[in-house]
Write a structure and sequence with these properties.
Elements (H helix, E strand, L loop, with lengths): L8 H4 L1 H11 L4 H5 L5 E3 L15 E15 L6 E8 L4 E7 L13 E11 L2 E5 L2 E5 L6 H5 L5 E3 L8 H15 L9 H7 L4 H9 L4 H32 L12 H8 L6 H14 L6 E6 L5 H14 L3 E5 L3 H15 L16 E5 L5 H13 L2 E6 L13 E7 L6 H8 L7 E6 L5 H4 L7 E5 L9 E7 L4 H16 L3 E5 L37 H10 L7 E4 L5 H12 L5 E4 L12 E6 L7 H8 L9 E7 L6 H11 L3 H12 L25 H17 L7 H10 L2 H9 L1
Helix pairs in contact: 7-8, 8-22, 8-23, 10-11, 12-18
Pfam families: DEAD (PF00270), Helicase_C (PF00271), RecG_dom3_C (PF19833), RecG_wedge (PF17191)
Family: Belongs to the helicase family. RecG subfamily.
GO molecular function: 3'-5' DNA helicase activity; ATP binding; DNA binding; hydrolase activity
């Protein structure tokens, strides 16, 4: 065990070590040294108090303006009120029955004050905060601790304020800085002008000025990028060493017959991406490719051509979809595209065709047995299904390709379980309709080669998007329903999307979120809100009110499978005018006659989710219209997000906004959003050049030294990055 693996109790004692472990998950000396300051303040440079958020645990540098001791009326005790200021705004500090603190807290003094921001009588305050006074006297412990340098402000906890953390870090630096290894190769540090790691750790915690802080961050940014990319490069190298059956196109096979029947010409982008996939399928190692593209760019067609190539070579392909609605939609559209090529062995079926099976969890017993038999016998060259495909009883004769649609909705174990059904590792194609910034593709999906479809097929119509401020301008909402009636009057159809199903569902609190519920981002800016609008109630009100006389139907995840399929069939056939639905229609649903979508409570959805939803309209020759209905005030952050969606159809631009809203998450974790990030200095949005260069350097190093035998310190850094959970994630990828 290295010195940096030493438990913190050896350094700071049992009590402090427990506080660090419980509140901040810091357990070793290495954890503490890599717990970097969140920001820095200069003595005399006071914290901007008007930016503090309620319920946030903060450390502020401020000046005491006023101190007042107020006895309680009619009972013993008192309240000490201290007002601190940054020169513009004020913050109240409240201490109960601690009048003796008047001796410490005097007007004019500066100090660090730490606590949780609360509200009392509409005034922000810290109740019983920790504090450390900082004056200019030589004898001040704080003056000595931070003499001549920036004051670090650490991510802290209620029991461990920032300056106490700073003292712990000081002890670790004094005792263990000499034990810090050097994971980056010397030639790489020299080429990129990076300071040694021990110096970087000292400067990140003890910078004298901004320049020293930036030099430290530049080095630590490289550490995070490079170690992560080495892990992914090792994963890619291990994958490329596995055996796989090459799957090459066969002249005169089902793919050629399918291509001859296509009523349109492939776009240049589709041809390019198909060529990349076909080249991967022809190798003796498993393909690992991410196919991402704009809504409606034709990813399903590209995936189908890949699946037909595998069928021509004698193998089977499977498409894993996240919901039954999407699986049924894929099955229906693929069978329609293939025609008699999907009916091998049936009356009227093509002699060179195959069968397309569907397997979902709620199928009837007879249909399920038939699908399982076709898969096990090899009659079904293509199978489309949901999580039901992962069950043990599901067997394939020769599984050659796994296509995962909307990968972010599946856990790693699910994807791995399906791939394990092949005698040799099958080829893998991961699809997502959520555009991913290049740097995220190089981190979250860094073990996959990436293909991008950024060209829409000809015939796709433009989509105009507008925000409808329902509270501020009720007449705008009235006009929205008039527009729906106008489109239906022209022979078109409409979607109305709501955040939830209806009042009869179990309360949101304490239950698991359904896949079709919105990935809610941003609330009411601190205000209480009414419950989100529901499909069932909205459909009833519309059918009785502004859309009376139109054929209105509902679609959501709790309908029986037969009912869902029936509604979608009738909607696709033009027998339904308005479909009121949850986000089950978010991806894959293709009804070209639909021209308008109204999204209720649009501010409750994420940016990328809104972009996905509006991609359901404008899929035919008529232009599309998307109306984002919201009660949020014009100045709110929620409305700013909606304005961003309305302002562009560029999914890649919106994905950056979405990522900024959600934060980067743990790029190696399965959740991939909303959790504490393993990246402390590196930003996957802002540091594209560092990530791209680190990827190239890591690929080169791993190619020359796969086991990192010549780089023991790098191997140690890799082991500390990859705890058991993350190592398992990379293994299964």
């Amino acid at each position: 065990m290295g010195a940096l693996d030493e438990p913190l109790k050896e350094l700071v004692g049992d009590r402090t070590a427990k506080v660090l472990a419980d509140g901040l998950k810091l357990r070793t000396v290495g954890d503490l040294l890599h717990h970097y300051p969140r920001r820095y303040v200069e003595r005399g440079q006071l914290t901007s108090l008007d930016e503090l958020e309620v319920d946030e645990h903060v450390t502020v540098l401020a000046r005491i303006e006023k101190v007042t001791l107020i006895p309680f009326r009619g009972r013993k005790g008192d309240r000490l009120e201290v007002v601190v200021t940054d020169g513009r705004s004020k913050l109240s500090l409240v201490f109960f029955n601690q009048g003796w603190r008047q001796k410490d807290l005097r007007p004019g003094q500066q100090g660090l004050f730490a606590g949780k921001v609360g509200l009392f009588n509409r005034t922000r305050q810290l109740a019983s905060p920790d504090y450390q006074l900082i004056d200019d006297e030589e004898g001040s412990s704080a003056a000595k601790q931070f003499a001549g340098r920036l004051i670090p402000v650490y991510p802290a906890s209620a029991q461990m304020p920032s300056w106490k953390l700073a003292l712990c870090v000081e002890m670790a630096l004094t005792k263990h800085l000499a034990d810090v290894g050097e994971p980056l190769p010397a030639e790489l540090r020299a080429e990129h002008g990076l300071i040694p790691l021990p110096e970087a750790l000292e400067l990140i915690h003890r910078p004298r000025d901004q320049a020293e802080k930036e030099r430290a961050q530049a080095r630590l940014r490289w550490d995070e990028a490079f170690v992560l990319q080495v892990a992914l490069a090792q994963r890619r190298a291990a994958d490329s060493a596995l055996p796989a059956v090459p799957r090459r196109p066969v002249p005169g096979g089902v793919l050629d017959a399918f291509d001859e029947r296509l009523p349109f010409t492939l776009t240049d982008g589709q041809r390019r991406v198909c060529a990349e996939i076909f080249a991967d399928l022809a190798t003796e190692h498993p393909m690992h490719r991410l196919l991402q593209g704009e809504v409606g760019s034709g990813k399903t067609l590209v995936a189908l051509r890949a699946m037909l190539t595998v069928v021509d070579s004698g193998g089977q392909a499977v498409l894993l979809a996240p919901t039954e609605v999407l699986a049924q939609q894929h099955h229906r559209s693929i069978v329609e595209m293939m025609g008699d090529l999907a009916e091998a062995g049936m009356i009227g079926g093509s002699e060179i065709g195959t069968r397309v099976a569907l397997l979902t969890g709620s199928m009837g017993a007879a249909a399920r047995r038939g699908a399982l038999l076709d898969m096990a016998s090899g009659k079904a060259g293509i199978t489309i299904g949901t999580h039901a495909l992962i069950e043990d009883r599901v067997q394939f004769a020769d599984l050659g390709l796994v296509v995962v649609d909307e990968q972010h909705r599946f856990g790693v174990e699910q994807r791995d379980a399906l791939r394990a059904k092949g005698e040799q590792p099958p080829h893998l194609l991961v699809m997502t309709a959520t555009p991913i910034p290049r740097t995220v593709a190089m981190t979250v999906f860094g073990d996959l080669e990436t293909s991008v479809l950024d060209q829409l097929p000809s015939g796709r119509s433009p989509i105009s998007t507008h925000v409808v401020p329902a509270l501020e301008k009720p007449n705008f909402l009235v006009r929205a329903w008039e527009r729906v009636r106008e489109e239906v009057g022209k022979g078109h159809q409409a979607y109305v999307v709501c955040p939830r199903i209806g009042d009869e569902e179990e309360p949101a609190k304490g239950r698991r979120k359904r896949k079709e519920e919105p990935e809610e981002v941003g609330g009411a800016d601190g205000e209480e809100r009414r419950p989100p609008l529901a499909v069932v109630e909205t459909a009833e009100k519309l059918a009785e009110g502004p859309l009376a006389g139109l054929r209105v139907e509902v679609l959501h995840g709790r309908l029986a499978p037969e009912a869902k399929d029936d509604v979608m069939r009738r909607f696709a056939a033009g027998e339904v005018d308005v479909l009121v639905a949850t986000t089950v229609i978010e991806v894959g649903v293709n009804v070209p006659n639909s021209t308008v979508m109204v999204i209720m409570d649009a501010d409750r959805f994420g940016v990328s989710q809104l972009h996905q939803l509006r991609g359901r309209v404008g899929r035919g020759s008529a232009p599309g219209l998307c109306l984002l209905v919201s009660d949020m005030p014009a100045a709110s952050a929620a409305r700013a997000r909606l304005d961003a969606v309305a302002g562009t159809l560029d999914g890649f631009a919106l994905s950056r906004i979405d990522l900024e809203q959600r934060r980067e998450g743990d790029v190696l974790g399965q959740a991939q959003s909303g959790v504490k990030s393993s990246l402390k200095v590196l930003s996957v949005l802002e540091d594209e050049e560092v990530i791209a260069t680190a990827r190239a350097e890591a690929t080169r190093l791993v190619a020359a030294d796969p086991a990192l035998e010549a780089h023991p310190e790098l191997r140690t850094a890799l082991e500390s990055l990859l705890d058991e959970d993350r190592a398992e994630y990379l293994e299964k990828g």
